[in-house]
Records
---
Amino acid sequence: MAWAESEQHLRHVEKDVLIPKIMREKARERCSEQVQDFTKCCKDSGVLMVVKCRKENSALKDCLTSYYKDPAFYEECKMEYLKEREEFRRTGIPTKKRLQKLPTSM
């Protein structure tokens, strides 16, 4: 599906806020093992988590950073955002509201 040039123009807030937000969410999903390891370590270590969880924190940062720096991943998230934006402009309904199930009985 090809968008017209005007449809692909991104505002500053879209480039610097909205697309990176999608990137963070998707990167966390893809790095879920590292997120779980770090979360477990933090829960188990309490106040000493800063010292005890360095290895888990480094692994999580490395995983997330690899996605943040990947131009193909950025393009994937950008295309997802553009599809959501196009759908919103067409229907007027945000994605989150569309994905919520409507009541089946009235």
Note: DSSP finds seven helices and no strands in the chain.
---
Amino acid sequence: MVKLRLKRCGRKQRAVYRIVAIDVRSRREGRDLRKVGFYDPINNQTYLNVPDILYFLEKGAQPTGTVHDILKKAGVFTELSLNQAKFN
């Protein structure tokens, strides 16, 4: 099973996170399938590769709680529902 979750980068006391698609059995810093975004909580900046995120969500990937909140704030789930309505 694939999850969309945060991978910690940066230095001490100055964490930034990559949003990655990763196998559930991998550890937090393990090898990811694909990098799909970036999140900086200190500067409150977010970059999302929406087509890749939609691809993984359509294939059944589950976002973690924090990633779910980030994607919800960015409006990714409304795009997902529009894409599903378009193809049905």
Note: The two ends are 25 Å apart (CA to CA).
---
Amino acid sequence: RMEAVVFVFSLLDCCALIFLSVYFIITLSDLECDYINARSCCSKLNKWVIPELIGHTIVTVLLLISLHWFIFLLNLPVATWNIYRGSNCPC
């Protein structure tokens, strides 16, 4: 039962993270084409760093709690990078 909840939440979280990645790419593309300035781009992207950090950390912790070691170890480097990026965020 716990496995199903973890994997459904992981699926929903991965969908949200993919959406955020597409949003980041579109915003950076707008910056490259000079549709927006750098300050506006940073303000749009910085507000999504902490929610991305929280979402990925929750999934990683749930995988650890539910004893899915292999998937946890696959997620650990990305979670570590997100924590590093979130700790250096000027938000």
Note: The chain has a mean pLDDT of 87.
